[in-house]
């Protein structure tokens, strides 16, 4: 079981958009009638401002939460993406989110070839639908040429340069809320006096995770020892 407290998304991630509605509201801000069913448009654009996808959701009257998963060609272009919510040709909400480049793959640092393949975006359009009308209305097309050049340069980054790019993106979207230290005899006393060990926090990837800890294998029974389970402490 893996933990992702940062909710990070990568080139091969699926994009799920969750919208919360307090009531039926039209694009001009007026409250819709009780029987009004609307079809807001969710519009995705990638870091080059290229239109990636546009899909409708069904909005019933009253409060509700709607979750929608986009079916996109992979890999997703790393960088700052934007989701827009459009009703009656009016953008009523927007939000930017981050698609992170990958530094590691299957427990090892990615190769130059893998970096170029994963960080250049898909070889085909993100979606098969005809988006020309939406593209014209929102002034979104095939992307900004300058941004495309920057993305092409980023797709060739590797090693320290790739790490620097990742750090720059993380700094734009995340802030440090807390710190901890990994227990070791080399940790100075001054650090120990100000910070908690990561193993004693609730948010660090180094903190205990009972649901993922399986324990040792009992050589006599062939079962895995579970120190968190009462009774026999073993299960198959």
Automatic annotation (TrEMBL):
UniProt keyword annotations, A-Z: Membrane, Signal-anchor, Transmembrane, Transmembrane helix
Region (Disordered) residue spans: 209-236
Q: What GO cellular component entries does it have?
A: Golgi membrane
- What is this entry's stated membrane topology? Single-pass type II membrane protein
Q: Name one GO molecular function term.
A: protein xylosyltransferase activity
- InterPro entries from the xrefs? XYLT (IPR043538)
Single GO BP term: chondroitin sulfate proteoglycan biosynthetic process
Main localization is Golgi
Top-level taxonomic group? Eukaryota
Location(s) in or outside the cell = Golgi apparatus membrane
Protein name from the UniProt record: Uncharacterized protein
Species this protein is from: Cherax quadricarinatus (Australian red claw crayfish)
